[in-house]
């Protein structure tokens, strides 16, 4: 028998929202770290590094995130008997693998958007590849990465709802549980939608704060022209 939706139903939804924030924060940070490594490798002078990063990025970007989640949660234990992954850990691994490939493309595009004159000037000063990358290219490319990076993190927050298939009680799964108890999906998922909006808007505000602090506003449609700013 169903009961009416009331304030006590906000508790599991808030817990689910907090788990979603934790999940996206951990996988987002790890995805950025590995994405930067892959993006730099994609533009490095090493053919092997470019080859490995290109294969990874192309494969992961060509696979739906839901398939990646299924593979990590259900496939890995079958391939490695005895290896039992926690639901949260498997979700983090899946989202990290997914995020790394897309962040890598953002990093690659940002690096390639820095005018070649900057690279040539660094070489004229006698800087090797890594010093040039650290002191000249990446500081400029980072300013370009932020707007599309923030957009991707917002997308990652919404994509994290797919880990509900593993049974992890994040925000969407919490909404399903409350709906089963109240029989009122409209009120429940209106609240869920508001919570997702608040999380995504918070990420957006952090991006705007970064732009204010750096005094930079990058138009994603004009990356090559603004790359030297």
Task: Explain what this protein looks like in three dimensions.
The chain is mainly α and 229 residues long. The chain has one domain: MetI-like (MetI-like fold, Orthogonal Bundle). Helices cover 77% and strands 0% of the residues. It is built from 9 helices and no strands. The protein has helices spanning 10-42, 47-61, 65-79, 87-113, 116-124, 129-159, 171-182, 185-214, 223-226. α2 packs across α4 (87-113). The model is unreliable at 218-229 (pLDDT under 50).
Q: What brief labels describe this structure?
A:
mainly alpha
Question: Topology, pairings included?
Answer:
Blueprint: H1 10-42, H2 47-61, H3 65-79, H4 87-113, H5 116-124, H6 129-159, H7 171-182, H8 185-214, H9 223-226
Helix pairs in contact: 1-2, 1-4, 1-7, 1-8, 2-4, 3-4, 4-6, 5-6, 6-8, 7-8
């Amino acid at each position: 028998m169903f009961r009416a939706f009331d304030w006590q139903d906000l508790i599991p939804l808030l817990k689910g929202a907090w788990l979603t924030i934790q999940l996206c924060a951990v996988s987002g940070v790890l995805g950025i770290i590995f994405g930067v490594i892959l993006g730099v490798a994609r533009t490095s002078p090493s053919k092997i590094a470019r080859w490995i990063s290109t294969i990874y990025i192309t494969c992961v970007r060509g696979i739906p995130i839901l398939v990646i989640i299924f593979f990590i949660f259900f496939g890995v234990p079958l391939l490695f008997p005895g290896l039992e992954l926690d639901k949260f850990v498997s979700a983090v691994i899946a989202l990290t693998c997914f995020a790394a490939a897309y962040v890598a493309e953002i990093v690659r595009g940002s690096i390639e958007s820095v005018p070649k004159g900057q690279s040539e000037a660094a070489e004229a000063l006698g800087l090797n590849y890594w010093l040039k990358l650290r002191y000249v290219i990446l500081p400029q490319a980072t300013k370009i990465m932020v707007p599309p990076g923030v957009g991707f993190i917002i997308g990652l927050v919404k994509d994290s709802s797919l880990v509900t298939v593993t049974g992890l009680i994040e925000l969407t799964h919490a909404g399903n549980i409350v709906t089963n108890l109240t029989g009122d999906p409209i009120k429940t998922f209106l609240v869920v939608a508001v919570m997702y909006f608040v999380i995504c808007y918070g990420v957006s505000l952090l991006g705007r704060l970064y732009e204010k602090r750096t005094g930079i506003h990058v138009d994603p449609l004009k990356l090559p022209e603004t790359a030297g700013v």
